[in-house]
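Researcher: I need the complex structure. Ligand is 4'-deoxy-4'-aminopyridoxal-5'-phosphate. Inputs:
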Amino acid sequence: MTMHSATLAIDETLRARRAAGEKVLHLGFGEAGLPVPAGVAAVLADAVRRNGYGPVAGSAEAREAAAGWFTRRGLPTGPEQVLFAPGSKALLFALVLALPGDVVLPRPSWVSYAAQSALAGKRTIGVPIPAGAGGVPDPERLEGALERARAEGAEPGVLVLTVPDNPTGTVARAEDVRAVCGIAERHGLAVVADEIYAELVHDADAARALPRAVDHLPERTVVTSGLSKSMALGGWRIGFARLPEGAWGERLRGELVGVASEIWSSLAAPMQAVAARVLEDPPEVLAHIAAARRLHGAVARAVHAEFAAAGAVCRAPEAGFYLYPDFEPVRERLAARGVRSGAELAAALLERYGVGVLAGAAFGDAAAGLRARVATSLLYGETEAERWAALRADAPAELPWVAASLGHLRDALAGLTRG
Ligand code: PMP
Ligand code: GLU
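Model: Output:
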């Protein structure tokens, strides 16, 4: 049986608890938690009467806009290389269906890659991430893992990279991206580069230097992205993919359009109008994303400090709105409280302290590990007014409602790890 995806399930659980009157700190879900800029809302309102299905790959105007968007980001792209869908999640699944072979994943990695690969009847080959940053398999271990997988009857065909990464909130090192692409090339793998967090690198210099698989393996790398994270439009379900130039890319595009035509037909026409506008990079949109990037960075750093103070080790946040703390250094203290696994850690935080996080096992990590994914993007406020204030604040972690949440977390972590 296919389970309710862990991210969406925890969101529903935590919201239901809140609705029932419980005080719950929601660190479970990667929803970007920001309001919609007025100009973008107006585009949707103006497009509400567009009720035709349109072409499966997306309207010419939306694909032109996406092609320009990639091109301005250093990746020359024509509109015929672009495919829209209701969320990049749908595109990732279509890719897993259309590309031959089993799926190689960094471990940990986002919950849905392995679940989608199982839905497609494929095996998953999980390879641990390097110590510094996630989103790529450790190049030192990838080749051996591929050989072992083949010896066990698997046929590795697709390598998924997440740069920047969910769940670790980090950006893979350029040399690791280059190395894993070299291995992918030698082993005939296709690369799916999930770049949905690419606009949300906190540091501007690091953002310009974002390492990209497509620079190393241009003919066999598919890039996926969308507006769920950068523009906080998750519920509008706007995703898109860039297929490589050349015969391989053209064939794959045909197969993806085939899958799309049989499952979702097209991205909702009003949403294509939104994509066409947002992907032209108008000043209001660029300013909104720049403010979001500052906010995500500031709050992620403040939450990181709480985990570090409680004795967890945690990679410093570099992009997006996630942290991946590891409570191994305080294992004995947790054991004294009956917590011996990631699942028990998440359960204790929720049941004893009203803090919702996801255990590392949801991301394919070892069950015995004391790791959890912490999403920080639902701390910005409950109301639109609070969220706008957070977006505009110089010191968002000091806003009363954000500070109160940080206090809730501090007390919970102190209670859980007290000696
Ligand atoms: N990839 C990653 C790494 C994600 O975290 C998400 C979050 N939903 C997605 C893809 C899918 O996003 P969407 O379907 O909203 O484009
Ligand atoms: N990607 C988000 C997360 O990891 C939520 C949405 C989803 O998983 O589809 O929490």
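Model: Summary of the prediction. The chain has two domains: 6-30+284-417, 40-280.
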